[in-house]
Design goal:
Layout: H1 29-40, E1 53-56, E2 59-62, E3 65-69, H2 82-95, H3 110-123, E4 127-131, H4 134-145, E5 151-155, H5 160-168, E6 172-176, H6 181-189, E7 197-202, H7 214-223, E8 227-231, H8 246-249, E9 258-262, E10 272-276, H9 284-287, H10 289-292, H11 299-312, H12 316-336, E11 349-354, H13 357-370, E12 372-373, E13 375-377, E14 387-392, H14 399-415
Parallel strand pairs: 3-12, 5-6, 5-7, 7-8, 8-9
Antiparallel strand pairs: 1-2, 2-3, 4-10, 9-10, 11-14, 13-14
Helix pairs in contact: 2-11, 3-11, 4-5, 6-7, 12-14, 13-14
Pyridoxal-5'-phosphate (PLP) binds near residues 134, 159, 161 and 262.
Cofactor: pyridoxal 5'-phosphate
Keywords: Aminotransferase, Pyridoxal phosphate, Transferase
GO molecular function: pyridoxal phosphate binding; transaminase activity
């Protein structure tokens, strides 16, 4: 008897010999073995941490222990803001939990319009489009803007969503050396003069926390007739006089054509967006697959985003506190002799560079046991094959918390030989 209940002899044809099934999952064997080897050494898997409870923007319970969070992108600490939470509750009560579909069909609610209005006010632009994540904003904008026979020029250390936006599109892809104005100029100079070109930059690069020389890069892009998109995911809220990002800080508001951002960092929820002053910007809504062919964000989420963005417009004290926190952590780690991703506290990310995976995992584990959770990052996500413990600061970290974190870094760093 077969599973269907048919006797094989009742079939009126000879089944053809079946080719052995090729297991498509076998390509992951190397990765599975590497992960297992790590787990077999007895360490906690750095990529499988579960938050049992989150008490505040800077404190969670992990494996039953109170733990300081030093790796979230909740830079401005908006996740527990009472006004933001109230806005989410009110939208949930009024509109329910879902959105019924794409932004184009059933899925645009009052609060999507509110979030886009808040973005236009925050950035001072004529246009704002909300996507379901920052990943999709990059994917959608890059693949839609640059077409066949055109060029997208990107920094070699670009975020995965930028690379994937290039792959999703049909334009020619040109990479330049990380943060090298000279290499950007050289590569743009080799392209056909009258072809469409988009240079994609990031204000802050998230692995090392270094910033881009946007002023020089935008000048070079404009010299070669290219449009510019800047991803300001890691600068929103605290860079520039209005918190718009590194591009605002460097005086480039009239020159950057498109700014991409996310709600998953300073805004404190989830979602992505692009803002622009381009008079035809609205056309993106009817041309962009990543906008059209996916469900929109729930009203509770966009309502929290709108409330948070409006509060960020006047969050001057939080901004000042975040920078003070970045200086305290960066200065403290530097004084202890740790190798850091940047010479100065250039952003809210402080990356500690370790010798190899073994040292990085041991130190990461030591820190977690002591009561602080940071992010471990390793190749291929990191530049130049580095192993990093990436710390990111929140405006809500207190001086005492950071003093405690520094003491934990000293003990863990000495234990693994990262500092003398
Ligand atoms: C530079 C950059 N762009 C885009 C994204 C994607 O944002 P989201 O988390 O909203 O998908 C990230 C996320 O980490 C990022 O670091």
């Amino acid at each position: 008897m077969t599973e269907t209940g048919l006797q094989p002899e009742t079939l009126d044809f000879d089944p053809a010999p079946v080719a052995p099934e090729r297991d498509l999952m076998s390509k992951f064997d190397g990765l599975i073995a590497e992960r297992q080897a790590l787990i077999d050494t007895g360490v906690t898997d750095p990529f499988a941490i579960v938050m049992d409870q989150v008490k505040s923007p800077t404190q969670a319970v992990i494996a039953g222990r109170d733990t300081i969070l030093l790796g979230t992108y909740n830079y401005m600490g908006m996740t527990f803001d009472p006004d933001v939470i109230a806005a989410g509750h009110a939208a949930l009560d009024r509109f329910g939990s879902g959105t019924n579909g794409s932004r184009m069909l059933n899925g645009t609610f009052r609060d999507h319009m509110e979030a886009e209005a808040a973005l236009r006010d925050f950035y001072g632009t004529s246009g704002a489009i909300v996507f379901s994540t920052g990943y999709m904003a990059n994917l959608g904008m890059i693949s839609t803007l640059v077409g066949k026979g055109e060029y997208v020029i990107l920094d070699a250390d670009s975020h995965a969503s930028i690379y994937d936006g290039c792959k999703q599109g049909v334009a020619e892809i040109v990479r330049f050396r990380h943060n090298s104005v000279e290499d950007l100029d050289k590569r743009l100079g080799r392209l056909p003069k009258d072809a469409g070109k988009l240079v994609v930059l990031e204000g802050v690069y998230s692995m090392l926390g270094d910033i881009a020389p946007l002023k020089e890069m935008v000048a070079v892009a404009k010299k070669h007739g290219a449009m510019v998109l800047s991803d300001e995911a890691h600068s929103m809220g605290f860079y520039g006089p209005n918190g718009r990002g590194v591009y605002e800080d460097q005086g480039l508001e009239g020159e950057v054509d498109f700014v991409v951002g996310t709600f998953s960092k300073s805004v404190g929820t989830v979602g992505g967006f692009c803002v622009s002053n381009h008079p035809k910007f609205e056309a993106i809504r009817i041309a962009c697959r990543a906008y059209i062919f996916t469900a929109s964000l729930p009203p509770s989420v966009v309502a929290t985003a709108a409330a948070s963005i409006r509060k960020l417009m006047t969050a001057h004290d939080k901004r000042a506190q975040l920078w003070a926190n970045a200086r305290q952590l960066h200065g403290g780690l530097k004084a202890m002799g740790f190798r850091l991703g940047t010479e100065a506290p250039d952003s809210a990310i402080v990356a500690v560079i370790l010798d190899d995976q073994e040292q990085a995992v041991a130190m990461w584990q030591g820190l977690l046991h002591a009561g602080v959770y940071v992010n471990m990052a390793r190749p291929p996500a990191t530049p130049a094959g580095t192993f990093l413990l990436r710390c990111s600061l929140c405006a809500e970290h207190s001086e005492a918390q950071l003093d405690a974190v520094l003491a934990m870094f000293r003990a863990a760093g000495e234990a693994v030989g990262a500092i003398g």
